[in-house]
Write a structure and sequence with these properties.
The protein has helices spanning 72-79, 93-106, 111-122, 126-129, 133-138, 153-165; strands spanning 2-3, 16-17, 24-25, 31-39, 45-54, 82-87, 181-182. The chain is of the alpha+beta class. The chain folds into 2 domains: 14-123, no CATH class; 132-184, no CATH class. Helix 2 packs antiparallel against helix 3. The termini are close together. The relative contact order is 0.16.
């Protein structure tokens, strides 16, 4: 059995969606990943609200003092939260994957938030399809081979083709043979 990959000659990564303003973070140097460190009701350390945003001096809110990033003063006043973060470029490539895996292993941040960030920055095409994939599934464009939220490259490619042309043949989904798996 062979698994088809997304065609290498087709570049699909055009950036990432900012979790604050919703606009495109067009390159690594303009991106920032941040989270909040606080205490829970028992006084235990709690880290959450992981998000990918524009760096302070980029994006549509660049004229605001903190741009799309958390305002440290506001977060501290709300719940004594401390804003922490790193440049987006620290999360991509092999070293970035290792950093993300270490964050999952440490379980300091909510695992689902780190897994979602990992998919967004490490899996080609994931960011491009994440907003339309549920519509594509409901219209029978793909039937995920793994599970919802975890898509093969060829499935993402099919969703992208469908989203671009909206004339992809529709099927009942589950009965459709997976085009990603080729017997041989």
């Amino acid at each position: 059995m062979f698994v088809k990959d997304m065609p290498s000659d087709k570049s699909i990564r055009s950036g990432w969606r900012c979790d604050n303003c919703g606009e495109l973070v067009s390159d690594l140097q303009k991106g920032w990943v941040e989270w909040l460190a606080t205490e829970d009701t028992n006084g235990e350390p709690k880290v959450d609200r992981l998000r990918l945003v524009h760096r302070r001096d980029t994006g549509p809110k660049c004229r605001d003092p903190y741009g799309c990033q958390y305002n440290p003063g506001d977060e501290f006043r709300k719940n004594r939260g401390i804003v922490e973060g790193l440049s987006l470029d620290r999360f991509v490539g092999s070293d970035g994957l290792m950093l993300l895996l270490s964050m999952i292993a440490a379980r300091e941040l909510p695992v689902q938030e780190v897994i979602e960030l990992t998919k967004r920055v490490q899996i080609p095409g994931y960011e491009a399809v994440c907003e339309v994939v549920h519509d594509a599934i409901s219209e029978g464009v793909i039937a995920p081979s793994i599970s919802s939220g975890f898509y093969l490259q060829c499935e993402m490619w099919e969703v992208l083709k469908w989203a671009r042309h909206r004339n992809f043949p529709k099927t009942n989904g589950v009965s459709r043979q997976n085009p990603c798996v080729v017997s041989g």
